[in-house]
Specification:
There is one protein chain. The chain is 56% helix and 11% strand. The protein is an alpha+beta fold and 652 residues long. It has 3 domains: 7-142 and 149-192 and 248-266, Arp2/3 complex 21 kDa subunit ARPC3; 267-374, no CATH class; 426-648, PPM-type phosphatase domain (Phosphatase 2c, domain 1). A 5-stranded antiparallel β-sheet has the order 3-12-11-8-9. The longest helix is centred in the middle third of the chain and has 50 residues, at 303-352. The protein is elongated. The chain starts with 6 loop residues before the first helix and ends with a strand. 37% of the residues are buried.
Length: 652
């Protein structure tokens, strides 16, 4: 930020709101801390937490509470001033450190939406706790003359670390969820001052020296006369570090004003949800361990010993949980969320913009993950092949002479892409206790129909059919992504409603094109014959039981996928006996027409299924196709006609 900021410009309604909030929160926490049965002193962590989140005005609010409290307690004036300096230092250091570390990587206000930011928060709070412990020791050296770091200082350090983690992480998650925008740096002065000409790393060296040298001197048990030297070294170097120039953080999120606070509309990413889950679990474990240790040792330990025990166990619980958690989150971020996010963003740009503009970027993004031996690698390889095929077809299209031929070629591209994702080898289910056959006849106007089947494990077979809204290449691409996401989420133990919910959340997020897809997903237990299924707005299938009339397998049809991220889905069950059949189809079958007799309809479809029970699954599919062709009498086909037949044979 260039130029200087005037008092009126700086102290506005928002700043006053922050100051009052910091004052009230600190005052209430101090009051609670005084009345706790043991000396936990949770207010110690408010200085770094409020300073980090709300900046200078929050720091002023904390200092006001400290000044009023120390004056009310009757402490000498010089001690009050020295404590104010302590509070200012430990409040301002995390604020300055956050906007000094990794600015080239992430220059936003405090958020826990990446493993880097979680690690950054933990390091900053640990460093600040160390500085606070040293400052506190120097302050009480002024009163008592003892300068050696002992167990009491270790307990105080652990108190600040534990409660800064508890308060800081909880506040960041809650305020992030509510959308409250954190304070960002607002520094005066000109950008070409002498501070800009100093290598910024020297300021960080000064901070480390200011923290290490006093600690080293204290451990040598010097006499009272060294206090002045320690104070000069500690406070001088910390003040020198605070002179480090920092640019204001940048946020691109849209904001609105609510009660003097700016509210952000944040996108909650997949890794942020993982981090929030781990943080909530970790904080719950920490609090639970603290309460358990209190009730276990209460009555058999002195209040001072009990305080140390509670803090020690809480700190051990924090370290034991968060250190492995950061490693796990780092693995998830690098192996799952980063690839999914990159492919998702590249696909969104690819679908929404010109092919030439984003084809190379799309190919480069997919190439980064094609080597992965998992579902992400499979999706990247499929999309890479699709991109190459599309490039080849588009190049062919450009060589055509007429616009009509170009249009037909584009439809052919979409048709080939669409058909390439539909499995044709039905022999993979041979010997499993089930038989499958399917067909898909693409219309002139290409849509996004698809079917799929695969073994979830050796005893469960999944069948799925879907119909994407819209026509052309976007529908084919959306179909491909949907099909791959459904298969990648199908793991043993997951029911269809859970799978569809997860895929729906992925499809709905940032769905700027407002596309959607109807899906029917069923998972058949090949041992018992029980099928669990869920319908996301799709046509009810036809079920034909041996010796019975065909009927529609009706159930509640939930919202189509891609329309609403938070849509709820449920599963239903049906028991199949050997010889029972289920026919899945899209509306291209039942809505086929000959311009005279209306739609083909489900009644005629069930009549055909009633008479072909002795045929093989392949021949049954053919008989339905032949009857539809007879009904339409050569009329133009306007929609894809897709069918998938499952016959349960039972295991020997």
């Amino acid at each position: 930020m260039t130029g200087r900021i005037g008092f009126r410009e700086y102290l506005g309604k928002r700043e006053l709101t922050i100051l009052v909030l910091a004052f009230v929160i600190t005052g209430v926490t101090n009051y609670i801390s005084i009345h706790l049965p043991i000396e936990l002193e949770p207010y110690l962590a408010l200085c770094p937490v409020i300073g980090l989140l709300f900046g200078p005005m929050g720091i002023i609010g904390v200092n006001l509470v400290s000044f009023i409290y120390n004056t009310w307690m009757g402490y000498p004036f010089d001690l009050v001033i020295l404590d104010l300096l302590n509070v200012f230092m430990v409040s301002y250091i995390p604020y300055r450190l956050w906007y000094s570390i990794g600015m080239g990587r992430d220059d936003r206000p405090p958020v826990l939406d990446s493993v880097f930011n979680v690690s950054k928060f933990m390091v900053i709070m640990t460093v600040t706790s160390l500085v606070y412990t040293l400052l506190y020791n120097i302050l009480y050296t002024y009163l008592e003359g003892s300068m050696v770091l002992d167990v009491t200082d270790l307990v105080r350090f652990l108190k600040v670390v534990s409660f800064s983690f508890l308060f800081g992480m909880s506040a960041i998650l809650v305020l992030r969820y509510l959308g409250v925008r954190f304070e960002t740096p607002r520094f005066g002065g000109t950008p070409d001052g002498w501070r800009r000409r100093v290598d910024p790393r020297w300021f960080d060296v000064v901070l480390m020296v200011g923290a290490v040298v006093p600690a080293a001197l204290m451990c040598t048990n010097p006499d009272q006369g060294v206090f002045t030297v320690l104070a000069v070294i500690e406070y001088g170097m910390l003040l020198a570090f605070l002179l480090k120039p920092v640019d204001p953080a940048h946020t691109e999120e849209k904001t609105v004003n609510v009660g003097g606070l700016r509210i952000n509309k944040f996108d909650r990413t997949l890794i942020e949800r993982f981090i929030a889950m781990f943080v909530v679990i970790g904080l719950a474990i920490c609090v639970g361990v603290g309460l358990s240790s209190y009730f276990i040792f209460s009555g058999i330990r002195t209040p001072e010993e009990l305080s140390g025990d509670v803090v020690m166990y809480m700190s051990v619980a924090l370290l034991a949980f968060f250190i492995p958690s950061v490693i796990i989150l780092w693995y998830i971020e690098n192996r799952v969320t980063v690839p999914v996010g990159a492919i998702s963003a590249a696909s969104r740009n690819f679908v929404s913009h010109d092919y030439d503009e984003f084809s190379a970027e799309f190919a480069d993004t997919c190439a980064r993950f094609t080597g992965a031996d998992n579902e992400i690698g499979e999706l990247a390889r499929s999309l890479s092949k699709m991109n190459v095929d599309m490039g080849t077809y588009i190049e062919d299209i450009r060589n055509l002479n007429s616009q009509q031929e170009m249009y037909r070629a584009e439809l052919n591209v979409a048709k080939n892409i669409q058909e390439s994702f539909v499995p044709r080898d039905f022999s993979i289910v041979d010997g499993t206790g089930a038989s499958i056959a399917g067909s898909m006849e693409a219309a002139k106007y290409v849509g996004g129909d698809f079917y799929d089947f695969y073994m979830v494990d050796e005893d469960h077979l999944a069948v799925v059919i879907g119909d994407v809204s819209g026509k052309g290449v976007p529908a084919a691409l959306f179909m491909a992504v949907t099909k791959n996401l459904i298969e990648s989420q199908s793991h043993p133990g997951k029911d269809p409603a859970e799978i569809i919910s997860l895929v729906n959340a992925s499809l709905s997020r940032n769905n700027d094109e407002n596309m959607f897809v109807t899906v029917w997903l069923g998972i058949l237990d090949l041992v018992t014959g029980r099928m669990t299924y869920c319908s996301a707005g799709h046509n009810p299938p036809v079920i034909v039981r041996r010796g019975s009339r065909p009927e529609l397998l009706k159930s509640k049809a939930f919202l189509v996928m891609g329309a609403k991220e938070t849509a709820k889905y449920g599963s239903f069950e049906v028991d199949l006996e050997p010889g029972d059949r289920i026919l899945l189809y899209t509306d291209g079958i039942t809505e086929a027409n000959d311009d005279y007799n209306g739609f083909y309809g489900t009644d005629r479809l069930m009549d055909v299924m009633a008479g072909n029970g002795d045929m093989t699954p392949e021949r049954q599919i053919e008989s339905v196709s032949e009857d539809v062709a007879e009904f339409t009498n050569g009329a133009e086909q306007f929609d894809d006609m897709t069918m998938l037949l499952l016959r349960y044979d039972g295991r020997a």
